C-alpha cells in the first residue's frame, strides 16, 4: 500500500529480473504474476550480490543455537554409525579370510550366510543392489541368484523405501501455453459424485489454457456420447479449438 501509485526503483542481485518488463513469451505462471506486478510502476536495476549485503542478511534465516546443537548431535550419530560400520566390515573381512582354503578357493556360503553377507553389505550405507553385488564380488564370492537376492533385500529395507526417490523414467516438466483465448482447451471428468435430482453424478471440467476460464457441465454418465453432447454447446459459444487436451479418462 506504500508503493502503489508511486514510481520506485527495485534493486536486486537476481539479474534475470532485469528483463521482467521485456519478456515476449510468458507462460501461465508468469502471466498470473504480471496481473499483480503490473499494478505497480517501477524500474528494475541489477545490483551485484557483493554490494547487496543488507537485503541478503535480512532475507536469510540463520541457524539458532538449538539448530546448531541438533546438527552437532546428528554429526556425532553419523560418527558412531561409521565406527560401527567399519567394525562390522573388519569382522566380515576376517570371516572371509578364515573361510579361505589352502588352495585359495572359498567355500560357498550357506543360505543363512548369504543373507547375512548381503544384509551387512547393504547396511554399510543403504546401498542398492548393484553396489551390493559389487561388494560381494570384490570379496571373491558369487552364487546363483545373487542379484535377485540383493534386490529383495533392498526392497525390504524400510528406510530405503521411505527416503529413496526414484527419478528414472520421468520427463522434465514443460509449460503449456496457448496463443489466444479458445485456442487450447484441457478437459477432464470428475466423479462419481452424489447423484442430483436430474440423475447427474459426473462433471465435465473444461479449462481454457490461455485465460484459465473454467467451464463445468453436469453429466449423467461418462460415456463418449454424453461428453460430446456437453462439448458441442461450448464449441458453439466459443468456437472450435485448435487443441483439445485430455488424459483419456
UniProtKB/TrEMBL annotation:
Listed InterPro entries: DNA/RNA_pol_sf, Integrase_cat-core, Integrase_H2C2, Retrovirus_Pol_polyprotein, RNaseH-like_sf, RNaseH_sf, RT_RNaseH
Domain Integrase catalytic: start-end pairs: 177-249
One GO CC term on file: nucleus
Entry GO MF terms: endonuclease activity; hydrolase activity; nucleic acid binding; RNA-directed DNA polymerase activity
Family annotation (Pfam families): Integrase_H2C2 (PF17921), RT_RNaseH (PF17917), rve (PF00665)
Keywords: Endonuclease, Hydrolase, Nuclease, Nucleotidyltransferase, RNA-directed DNA polymerase, Transferase
Gene Ontology biological-process annotations: DNA integration
Xref: PANTHER family: PROTEIN CBG26694, PROTEIN NYNRIN-LIKE
Name by which UniProt lists this protein: Integrase catalytic domain-containing protein
Organism in which the protein naturally occurs: Absidia glauca (Pin mould)
UniProt lineage: Eukaryota, Fungi, Fungi incertae sedis, Mucoromycota, Mucoromycotina
Amino acid at each position: 500500500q506504500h508503493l502503489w501509485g508511486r514510481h520506485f526503483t527495485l534493486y536486486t542481485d537476481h539479474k534475470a529480473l532485469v528483463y521482467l518488463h521485456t519478456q515476449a513469451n510468458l507462460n501461465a505462471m508468469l502471466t498470473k504474476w504480471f496481473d499483480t506486478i503490473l499494478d505497480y510502476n517501477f524500474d528494475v536495476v541489477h545490483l551485484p550480490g557483493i554490494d547487496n549485503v543488507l537485503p541478503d542478511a535480512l532475507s536469510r534465516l540463520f541457524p539458532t543455537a538449538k539448530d546448531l546443537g541438533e546438527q552437532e548431535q546428528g554429526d556425532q550419530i553419523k560418527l558412531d554409525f561409521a565406527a560401527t560400520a567399519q567394525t562390522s566390515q573388519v569382522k566380515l573381512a576376517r570371516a572371509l579370510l578364515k573361510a579361505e582354503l589352502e588352495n585359495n578357493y572359498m567355500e560357498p556360503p550357506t543360505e543363512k550366510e548369504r543373507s547375512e553377507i548381503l544384509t551387512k553389505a547393504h547396511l554399510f550405507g543403504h546401498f542398492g543392489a548393484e553396489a551390493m553385488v559389487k561388494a560381494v564380488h570384490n570379496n571373491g564370492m558369487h552364487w546363483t541368484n545373487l542379484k535377485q537376492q540383493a534386490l529383495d533385500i533392498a526392497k525390504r529395507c524400510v528406510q530405503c523405501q521411505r527416503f529413496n526417490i526414484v527419478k528414472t523414467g520421468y520427463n522434465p516438466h514443460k509449460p503449456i501455453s496457448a496463443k489466444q483465448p479458445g485456442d487450447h482447451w484441457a478437459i477432464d471428468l470428475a466423479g462419481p459424485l452424489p447423484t442430483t435430482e436430474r440423475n447427474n453424478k459426473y462433471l465435465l471440467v473444461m479449462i481454457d489454457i490461455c485465460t484459465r476460464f473454467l467451464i463445468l457441465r453436469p453429466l449423467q454418465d461418462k460415456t463418449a456420447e454424453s461428453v460430446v453432447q456437453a462439448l458441442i454447446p461450448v464449441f458453439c459459444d466459443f468456437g472450435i479449438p485448435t487443441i483439445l487436451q485430455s488424459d483419456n479418462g
